[in-house]
Amino acid sequence: MAEPTPRRNEPRLRPAPLLFEPAEAAGDPEHFFDLESIDDPGALLARATELTVAFQAAADRALEFQAMAAAQLADPRRFDRLTPADIAERAEWTEDYAKKMVEFGRDLMRGEVEGRGYADPV
Q: Does the global pTM surpass 0.70?
Protein backbone atom coordinates (compact mmCIF):
# COMPACT_ATOMS: atom_id res chain seq x y z
CA MET A 1 0.00 0.00 0.00
CA ALA A 2 1.29 3.45 -0.83
CA GLU A 3 2.28 5.94 1.81
CA PRO A 4 -0.27 8.73 2.28
CA THR A 5 0.57 11.78 0.24
CA PRO A 6 2.32 14.28 2.56
CA ARG A 7 0.95 17.78 2.73
CA ARG A 8 2.52 21.21 2.81
CA ASN A 9 4.51 20.97 6.06
CA GLU A 10 5.53 17.33 5.77
CA PRO A 11 8.56 16.14 3.82
CA ARG A 12 7.61 14.04 0.79
CA LEU A 13 8.88 10.46 0.94
CA ARG A 14 10.27 9.32 -2.37
CA PRO A 15 9.07 5.95 -3.65
CA ALA A 16 11.35 3.68 -5.63
CA PRO A 17 12.48 5.36 -8.82
CA LEU A 18 10.56 4.50 -11.96
CA LEU A 19 13.28 4.09 -14.52
CA PHE A 20 12.44 4.52 -18.17
CA GLU A 21 12.85 1.38 -20.18
CA PRO A 22 14.86 1.35 -23.40
CA ALA A 23 12.65 1.52 -26.49
CA GLU A 24 13.55 -2.01 -27.59
CA ALA A 25 12.59 -3.41 -24.16
CA ALA A 26 9.33 -1.49 -24.04
CA GLY A 27 8.36 -3.06 -27.36
CA ASP A 28 8.70 -6.57 -25.92
CA PRO A 29 5.37 -7.53 -24.26
CA GLU A 30 7.19 -9.95 -21.93
CA HIS A 31 9.51 -7.23 -20.62
CA PHE A 32 8.44 -5.16 -17.63
CA PHE A 33 11.03 -3.09 -15.75
CA ASP A 34 13.43 -6.04 -16.04
CA LEU A 35 11.38 -8.08 -13.53
CA GLU A 36 11.43 -11.11 -15.82
CA SER A 37 15.21 -11.30 -15.45
CA ILE A 38 15.13 -11.58 -11.62
CA ASP A 39 15.51 -15.25 -10.66
CA ASP A 40 15.48 -14.92 -6.87
CA PRO A 41 11.83 -14.88 -5.65
CA GLY A 42 12.76 -12.75 -2.64
CA ALA A 43 14.42 -10.12 -4.82
CA LEU A 44 11.53 -10.31 -7.29
CA LEU A 45 8.99 -9.75 -4.53
CA ALA A 46 11.00 -6.80 -3.16
CA ARG A 47 11.39 -5.07 -6.55
CA ALA A 48 7.80 -5.77 -7.62
CA THR A 49 6.62 -4.34 -4.29
CA GLU A 50 8.77 -1.24 -4.80
CA LEU A 51 7.23 -0.75 -8.23
CA THR A 52 3.71 -1.27 -6.87
CA VAL A 53 4.25 1.39 -4.20
CA ALA A 54 5.83 3.76 -6.72
CA PHE A 55 3.00 3.35 -9.23
CA GLN A 56 0.34 3.79 -6.55
CA ALA A 57 2.04 6.93 -5.21
CA ALA A 58 2.27 8.29 -8.76
CA ALA A 59 -1.39 7.47 -9.42
CA ASP A 60 -2.46 9.12 -6.15
CA ARG A 61 -0.52 12.27 -6.95
CA ALA A 62 -1.78 12.37 -10.53
CA LEU A 63 -5.35 12.05 -9.26
CA GLU A 64 -4.81 15.09 -7.03
CA PHE A 65 -3.54 17.08 -10.02
CA GLN A 66 -6.57 15.94 -12.05
CA ALA A 67 -8.85 17.19 -9.29
CA MET A 68 -7.10 20.55 -9.05
CA ALA A 69 -7.23 20.98 -12.82
CA ALA A 70 -10.94 20.12 -12.83
CA ALA A 71 -11.56 22.67 -10.07
CA GLN A 72 -9.64 25.34 -11.98
CA LEU A 73 -11.52 24.61 -15.20
CA ALA A 74 -14.85 24.88 -13.34
CA ASP A 75 -13.91 28.08 -11.49
CA PRO A 76 -16.86 30.47 -11.84
CA ARG A 77 -14.45 33.41 -12.05
CA ARG A 78 -13.14 32.14 -15.40
CA PHE A 79 -14.86 33.59 -18.43
CA ASP A 80 -14.22 30.29 -20.20
CA ARG A 81 -15.16 28.01 -17.32
CA LEU A 82 -16.38 24.52 -18.09
CA THR A 83 -19.43 22.76 -16.75
CA PRO A 84 -19.06 19.42 -14.98
CA ALA A 85 -20.51 17.81 -18.12
CA ASP A 86 -17.78 19.43 -20.25
CA ILE A 87 -15.07 18.32 -17.83
CA ALA A 88 -16.52 14.80 -17.74
CA GLU A 89 -16.44 14.62 -21.51
CA ARG A 90 -12.82 15.78 -21.70
CA ALA A 91 -11.63 13.41 -18.98
CA GLU A 92 -13.89 10.52 -20.00
CA TRP A 93 -15.62 10.54 -16.60
CA THR A 94 -19.27 10.50 -15.62
CA GLU A 95 -20.74 13.88 -14.80
CA ASP A 96 -21.24 12.87 -11.15
CA TYR A 97 -17.58 11.89 -10.87
CA ALA A 98 -16.55 15.20 -12.45
CA LYS A 99 -18.58 17.09 -9.84
CA LYS A 100 -16.87 15.14 -7.05
CA MET A 101 -13.45 15.77 -8.58
CA VAL A 102 -14.16 19.51 -8.82
CA GLU A 103 -15.08 19.59 -5.12
CA PHE A 104 -12.06 17.46 -4.19
CA GLY A 105 -9.82 19.81 -6.19
CA ARG A 106 -11.30 22.85 -4.46
CA ASP A 107 -10.67 21.20 -1.07
CA LEU A 108 -7.07 20.45 -2.08
CA MET A 109 -6.46 24.02 -3.22
CA ARG A 110 -7.92 25.40 0.02
CA GLY A 111 -5.75 23.01 2.01
CA GLU A 112 -8.77 21.32 3.56
CA VAL A 113 -7.52 17.82 2.75
CA GLU A 114 -4.33 18.31 4.76
CA GLY A 115 -3.38 15.42 7.01
CA ARG A 116 -5.99 13.07 5.56
CA GLY A 117 -3.59 11.34 3.21
CA TYR A 118 -4.94 10.06 -0.07
CA ALA A 119 -8.66 10.57 -0.38
CA ASP A 120 -10.56 9.20 -3.33
CA PRO A 121 -13.26 11.73 -4.25
CA VAL A 122 -15.87 9.00 -4.72
A: no
